[in-house]
Design a protein that fits this description.
By secondary structure, the chain is α+β, with helices and mostly antiparallel strands. Helices cover 43% and strands 21% of the residues. It folds into two domains: 85 residues; 218 residues, Bira Bifunctional Protein, Domain 2 (BirA Bifunctional Protein, domain 2, 2-Layer Sandwich). The relative contact order is 0.11. The structure holds adenosine-5'-[phenylalaninyl-phosphate]. Adenosine-5'-[phenylalaninyl-phosphate] binds next to strand 6, strand 9, strand 10 and helix 10.
Length: 322
């Protein structure tokens, strides 16, 4: 009887060699392992085998069954893979790869930095969580002074706050260096402002500070004209309006023509002597100008966006189109 097992094994292997499709493989499986298959037939015969041969026969049949199962399983995996590859339609359009794009606000900030570097400014950094001293006191805004109300402040403790403007970086830079200096700092600032079409509670500012001997208002004006020309093109109309900041004297605001009206994009002025005193510079010897640009408002004008909130809504259509 053991010869019968060997013979079936032989036959299976010959037929297995010739298999070239899943269909054929399945037929072969049924022929050997199916209900009426050869192996099943052999297993049914076990009970008729004389007891002394039964053990050996049973073991041989089971071993062959396992071998056949394994061969079929391996062959199926291979054939399935091959058939799948054969069905690959190379004429189908590919899946689009969505590349990341820069947010319009980041683009504007980067552009501002480029212009600043071109004008000889050095880029400096500063913290967003700030001491009340740097945000106000050293900028000639004493605690009792009503001008503090110009910045609706988010306090963390009595002495610590989320900076309301990038101007504290002026103080931090001057404290650590000797004049002359020409620095630029872009970063985020925070205010308890209502979130409306032209105000965000967290927005960008970019601070410029130039300290040297004999710096004049004409230097400031020329620098701001350069910035606006680079940002909006040479024909852009801008307006200088007299303004008030405790840390500059005189002070100005710059408005850019924006469709029907004018939008304020920056505050600026000549560094106040009190600010120089706070950092230990002699105001009789040194002069300077400072300005604070609003990249959010600049981006609105540049890209024709009439609502600042669009920049913060994470709608990918905005980024896709700009
Ligand atoms: C300041 O914050 C001064 N530190 C600017 C300055 C620097 C003056 C150096 C003199 C010397 P102001 O509060 O006006 O100023 O803000 C400056 C600019 O930030 C504004 O012109 C505007 O473009 C932008 N800005 C102000 N508030 C918001 C807001 N809530 N959302 C978006 N942009 C704002």
């Amino acid at each position: 009887m053991i010869e019968k097992v060997k013979e079936i094994e032989q036959r299976f292997k010959e037929q297995f060699e010739k298999i070239s499709s899943l269909k054929e493989l399945d037929e072969l499986r049924i022929k050997y392992l199916g209900k009426k298959g050869e192996i099943t037939g052999l297993l049914k015969k076990i009970k008729d085998i004389p007891p002394e041969e039964r053990k050996e026969f049973g073991r041989a049949v089971n071993a062959l069954k396992v071998e056949i199962q394994e061969l079929i399983q391996a062959a199926r995996a291979k054939l399935e893979k091959a058939e799948k590859a054969g069905k690959l339609d190379l004429t189908l359009p590919g899946k689009p790869v969505i590349a990341g794009k820069k947010h319009p606000l980041i683009k504007v900030v980067e552009e501002l930095v480029e212009v600043a570097v071109g004008l000889g400014f050095e880029i400096v950094d500063g913290p967003e969580i700030e001491w009340e001293y740097y945000n106000f006191e050293a900028l000639n805004i004493p605690e009792y002074h009503p001008s503090r109300d110009m910045w609706s402040t988010l306090f963390i403790t009595d002495k610590m706050l989320l900076r309301t403007h990038t101007s504290p970086v002026q103080i931090r830079t001057m404290e650590n260096r000797k004049p002359p200096l020409k620095v630029f700092h872009p970063g985020r600032v925070y205010r308890k402002d209502p979130f409306d079409a032209s105000h965000a509670p967290a927005f960008f500012q970019a601070e410029g500070l130039y300290v040297d001997k004999n710096v004049s208002f004409a230097d400031l004006k020329a620098t701001l004209e350069m910035f606006t020309r680079e940002l909006f093109g040479p024909k852009t109309k801008i307006r200088f309006l007299p303004s008030y900041f405790p840390f500059t004297e005189p002070s100005t605001e710059v408005l850019v023509n924006w469709g029907e009206g004018w939008l304020e994009i920056l505050g600026a002025g000549m560094v106040h002597p009190r600010v120089f005193e706070a950092v230990g510079y002699d105001p009789e010897e040194w002069t300077g100008y400072a300005f604070g640009l609003g990249p959010d408002r600049i981006a609105m004008i540049k890209y024709g966006i009439d609502d600042i909130r669009l920049f913060y809504e994470n709608d990918l259509r905005l980024i896709g189109e700009l």
